[in-house]
Each structure stands twice: as structure tokens, then as C-alpha cells.
From TrEMBL:
Gene source species: Cinchona calisaya
The enzyme's E.C. designation: 6.3.2.3
Name under which the protein is recorded: Glutathione synthetase
MF GO annotations: ATP binding; glutathione binding; glutathione synthase activity; magnesium ion binding
Keywords assigned: ATP-binding, Glutathione biosynthesis, Ligase, Magnesium, Metal-binding, Nucleotide-binding
Amino acid sequence: METQKEEDFVKPTFDPHSIEPELIQKIAYDALVWSSLHGLVVGERNSQRSGKVPGVAMVHAPFALLPMSFPESHWKQACEAAPIFNELVDRVSLDANFLQDSLSRTKKVDEFTSRLLDIHSKMLEMDKKEDIRLGLHRSDYMLDEQTKLLLQIELNTISSSFPGLSCLVSELHRMLLHQFREHLLLDPERVPRNNAVNGFAEVLAKAWTEYNNPRTVIMVVVQPEERNIGREAVAVIYFRAGYAPTDYPSELEWRARLLMEQSIAIKCPSISYHLAGTKKIQQELAKPGALERFLENKDDIAKVRKCFAGLWSLDDTHIMKDAIKRPGLYVMKPQREGGGNNIYGDDVKETILRLQRAGNEEDAAYILMQRIFPAVSPAILMRDGVSHRDQTISELGVYGAYLRNKERVIVNDNCGYLMRTKVSSSNEGGVAAGFAVLDSIYLV
């Protein structure tokens, strides 16, 4: 194959919507073939047998046909921040008073958070110590168009999804840019290699080694009829479920969670790591002086704080008045994961007014966050084998892996990324929830 010179490539300011339909059809065909051959597939949502019978009713995962442009400086910023966030989660998890006090009001009005805190309290009563602590995290960001700042959406400490499929999308895009290089004039090497699935597997294997008992087994906690069934080769107790109230339909599931927490197995996440990733803790850490409680290095503190968007509790009278006046500038977030839970636009105003009329403490179940407005970009999205053009916005997630045995840090690094792209008119961004597609980045 001929090697294309670097100067022959153009900066990806190109408009994918300008590509001729015939070429789009060829690229899409090759992408679908590659997806089938390399396992870029998920269970078909509308099939009754999907998630019940392995290999039956599979369809390609939704993906963007070409990678999304992303500034290299912000990419490096997110990668450098990942180990600091890993360490921050670990430090926060060890501060039982901070977790209990920060979530004390939320506990009164949010049954799910209350049950998690009850388990945490039982571990404190037992004086249960997690000598080996394992975290597989993902910090999600959007690039704010007005300020040009990379701002954190949230920090996930439980069930950080799509490490396997995100790797495949990166490889798919590198292949397409190479195969159609004469038409697209884009450099495949500008799509960062994504090692998320291997990174997850390696750190889980190292955790199993630290446990130091070759007779032990691997355990993965998943939701019923899981459709994202690939890349689950993990060790110890790895929670791919347990982050939503629907995962605990009866007392049996809560007893199982308590039993696992009481065991000497390594949990990913432990109950304290789980609580450290709640929205309320994210908001508490954004307060002036809060990071200094957990981090000593001033440069690390500055890097983390630079990522923080505006975050407030609903007892901030000044911010509440502004949110009622200008609701479009804010997002209300409950203590929930998985997409489809946030409140936007005029619904922010109506919810705040309802809570104020109620006069109870239900407002403690929410936080308020500055709404981020990323740039809108043209993209070609693939769903159910069909390509369609749309105006989109994107969200970058950087995975972090952390493993510690008492005072010895064994792993603390970033280990890949997840890019999600959705139509610009959509508020929510979950792939599994049907709002977004998987993507990769092209560094500019």
C-alpha cells in the first residue's frame, strides 16, 4: 500500500454531509461488514429472544460513520485528569463522615440513596476495611462552545459502560479512513488507539492476583436479559448492574448487595466508591476548599477544578431565583445513573416551583448544574443498517483504572475513551437508552 504524505491530509473541517451519496453508501457497506466480522454488535431491542439466547437477534451497535473532530489539547487535558480523579475517588471513599454528612439530607427523600447509605453504615459498624480497592471509572466531558473549556458532566464509579464497543468503533474508523484515504484525505493515525477493554481486563486480573487465592472465581453482576453481552471477561465482583432502583425489585436483591459488601471479595465498586460517584458528592467537591480536603498537590487540584462546571444545591436561594428566571441555562439532576433522568428547559422552573410550594426536603434529591452548550457539528449516523445525516453534539468519556493494596498503588492510569454523539435536539445522551451513537475522535 502506498504511504500518504502528511501534507496530503486536510484538517477535518470538512463537512461529511458534502460527501457524495454513492461514496457514503460504499463506506456504510464496508462499515457494516466490518462490524459483523469484528463483533461491533448488540442484541436486537425488539426481539423477544435477544438477551436470552446467545448469538440470536444481533444487530450492529449504533455508530457514527466517521470520527468527530476534537482538539488535541483538550484530549490531553482529559487524559491527564483521569489518574487524579481516580485518586480523588479513593480518598473520598475513605472519608466516611464526608459521605454520610454530604448525603444526609438526600437520604431523607431518596429511598435508593438511603438504602446504599444503610449498607455503608453497616460496614462502618463492622469496622469493615477494604484493603484492596479497585475502581473502573469514566469521567464524562463536553467542550463548551462559548468558553472553549472542557467541562465535566459527571464522574461514573459504577458500571462504566462500553469499554469493549468503544475500542471497536475506534478501530472501525481507523480502517475506514485508511481504506478511503484518497477520497476523505484524513489521517487514520489521528484517531487515538483505544485500549479500554484490555485496560479493564488487565486491572481486574491484577486485582484477582492481589487477592492471592487461585481457587476463587470470577463474578459479574448484570441486569436480566443484558443485550450488551460482549466483553464481559472480568474478575472479582464487577457490578455491571446495581446503579438503578429497578435493579433492586425486592428485598432479596438488597440482601444480596449487603452480602457481597460484607464479603472479603474485592468489589468494583465498593459501596463507598459507589457513593463517591453520586451527583451530590460531585456537587460537594465543587465547593471552594473541598478538593483540598482530599488532594495535596496544588497542580492536581487546579487540573480537577478547571474541569468543574457550575454545580449547586437547591438550598442556594440566589441560584434558585436565577434558575426560575433563566431555566434554559441549568440542568436539574437526581441521584440516578443510566440516562433519561435529568430535567431541562422550562421543566427546571416548574420543578423548582413545585418543590418550593411543597415546602418539604424533596429538593435534597437533586442538584443543579450549569448547562453546557457544545458546538453543533454535521455527522452521519448509522442505525439499523441505515445511514442518515444530522446535526449533532458529542460527549467524551475517559476511562480510568485504579488498584490499590493498602498503601501500595498498583495501577492508576487512564485506559481508553468513549465518544458518544447524538442529534443536537436531544437532551439525553445514553447509547443504551437509544439517544446517542458510539463514535471516536479525530485529533485536530
